[in-house]
């Protein structure tokens, strides 16, 4: 991904920090943003960034561009009109919200306060981002509020080099641009595993009892109650909560059952590994049962010995350092969320993620009591085709960019590229949802086909790991093949691109009758004759 960061003040230190980890446009000078944007021969146009950040210093914009008898609100409106005039559909624009380092602006009529100017900019930005799908907000105001204006800005560096932000402010902005890009690319984590004693409540339940642990609406117990409120909010964004704790199961559950001050409930946690086994073993079991990679997990524990053991045994798991002072706990949880789980947008699947995974736990319990065939029949699985994929771009983006295990090519596309493909008649998007007697799994699979020169190709086949092992993929592929046959194609081409995480599906195509055309260590190419293909086995009521 190529990015540009433009500003009306000197942000060279921020760009230098980002250049160490990003393919970023190195702008010459600062201030005249629109000259580079308008000029088709400019270095910026030749660079062709996918994402452009605008870090606009509102104070500088108003004082420089407000001429005599010119209202600052007109300056703001004019700025957005200029941006709208140069926007293209294949670029994402991220614009900072308004914050001024000073409490008043010299040269602006006294009747207009700085708060009004900031409010007008933010109101205009809110409207602009809602009107344009490729415009996002960069919340620099919250960054400033976290540090405070005195730490975020630097008068000295402004006088010396027109650099408005302090060293710590520059680092904060660079770090949060990185976090924004990670969220935009859907590279956030999926599972948050929590310890119990001195993590979810204060004290040790085995010693103090269910009503003796510290959790309350006042005093030290309030810290843990507020912490649970934050964990609950994280769960509501689609993060799966689990427990890994060295405790007696009965003692731990009693806190949830009997302590009236608990915010989180027993069923807010999808899996509970409460025993005396190694926590690394329990975390490994959680990953296997949820069918997620260890690199999708964050583990929080107050005990430094336990943290180090997990780090040593499971290096892919993120284990943040627990705060040494408990009054910093809330801020720590916020940082964990921002660094590992923050999303730009929430899908309907995100909002019901805990419910979906709890349903899977019930399915797995049933699976232990029946033969494989009887289990699949008993699920009463129904798979449906989504009529208009354009209504579900965010979910398509997730399936493409976050699915690793059931992903035959592991090609990543940006949201803008997805939109362009949806508008191209040579591509077809097959988006499937799934439900059974335990509940609705939501949108679970995406197949993209491409037709050119009289040939049909499957260029992408992804499916959510939570529905793997039910032969749903057999039905989905069968549906796509039959549909391509209806369009007059005699055969269909496909390929598998090897990755370590996608090994579970490396033989999918040949198992379903595809002929191997070429094969090496990284790539296998296939073809299937649609007239002579064999009948597939699946236990699905489908969307014929």
Automatic annotation (TrEMBL):
UniProt-listed Gene3D superfamilies: HAD superfamily/HAD-like, SGNH hydrolase
Out of the domains of life, which is the source?
Answer: Bacteria
Q: What is this protein called?
A: HAD-IIIC family phosphatase
Which organism was this protein described from?
A: Anaerosacchariphilus polymeriproducens
Lineage in the entry? Bacteria, Bacillati, Bacillota, Clostridia, Lachnospirales
């Amino acid at each position: 991904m190529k990015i540009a960061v433009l500003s009306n003040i000197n942000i060279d230190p921020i760009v230098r920090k980002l250049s160490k980890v990003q393919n970023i446009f190195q702008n010459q000078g600062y201030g005249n943003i629109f000259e580079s944007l308008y000029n088709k021969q400019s270095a910026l146009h030749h660079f062709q960034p996918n994402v452009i950040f605008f870090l606009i210093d509102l104070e500088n914009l108003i004082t420089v561009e407000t001429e005599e008898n010119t209202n600052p609100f007109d300056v703001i409106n004019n700025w957005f009109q200029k941006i709208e005039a140069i926007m293209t559909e294949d670029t994402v624009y991220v614009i900072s919200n308004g914050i001024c380092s000073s409490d008043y602006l010299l040269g602006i009529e006294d009747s207009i306060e700085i708060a009004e100017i900031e409010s007008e900019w933010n109101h205009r930005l809110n409207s602009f981002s809602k009107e344009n799908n490729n415009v996002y907000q960069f919340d620099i105001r919250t960054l400033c509020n976290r540090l405070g204006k005195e730490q975020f800005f630097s008068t000295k560096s402004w006088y010396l080099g027109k650099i408005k932000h302090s060293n710590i402010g520059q680092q904060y902005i660079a770090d949060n641009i990185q976090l924004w890009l990670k969220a935009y690319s859907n590279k956030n984590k999926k599972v948050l595993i929590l310890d119990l004693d001195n993590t979810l409540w204060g004290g040790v339940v085995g010693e103090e009892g269910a009503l003796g642990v510290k959790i309350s609406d006042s005093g030290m117990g309030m810290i843990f109650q507020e912490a649970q409120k934050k964990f609950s909010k994280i769960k509501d964004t689609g993060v799966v909560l689990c427990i890994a704790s060295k405790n007696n199961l009965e003692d731990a559950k009693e806190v949830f059952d009997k302590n009236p001050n608990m915010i989180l409930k027993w069923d807010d946690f999808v899996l509970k590994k409460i025993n005396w086994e190694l926590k690394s073993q329990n975390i490994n079991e959680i990953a296997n049962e949820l069918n997620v990679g260890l690199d999708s997990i964050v583990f929080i524990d107050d005990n430094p010995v336990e943290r180090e053991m997990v780090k040593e045994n499971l290096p892919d798991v993120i284990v943040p350092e627990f705060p040494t002072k408990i009054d910093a706990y809330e801020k720590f949880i916020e940082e964990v969320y921002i660094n590992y789980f923050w999303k730009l947008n929430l899908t309907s699947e995100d909002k019901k993620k805990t419910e979906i995974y709890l349903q899977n736990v019930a399915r797995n319990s049933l699976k232990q009591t029946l033969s494989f065939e009887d289990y699949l029949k008993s699920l009463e699985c129904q798979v449906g085709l989504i009529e208009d994929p354009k209504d579900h771009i965010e979910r398509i983006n997730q399936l493409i960019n976050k699915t690793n295990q059931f992903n035959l090519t592991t090609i990543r596309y940006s949201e803008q590229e997805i939109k362009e493909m949806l508008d191209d008649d040579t591509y077809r998007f097959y988006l499937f949802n799934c439900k059974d007697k335990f509940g609705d799994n939501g949108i679970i699979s995406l197949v993209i086909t491409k037709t050119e020169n009289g040939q049909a190709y499957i260029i992408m086949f992804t499916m959510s790991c939570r529905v793997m092992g039910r032969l749903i993929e057999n039905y989905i592929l069968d549906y796509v093949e039959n549909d391509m046959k209806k369009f007059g194609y005699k055969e269909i081409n496909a390929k598998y691109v090897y990755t370590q995480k996608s090994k579970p599906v490396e033989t999918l195509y040949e198992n379903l009758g595809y002929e191997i055309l070429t094969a090496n260590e990284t790539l296998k190419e296939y073809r299937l004759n649609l007239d002579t293909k064999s009948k597939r086995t699946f236990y699905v009521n489908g969307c014929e």
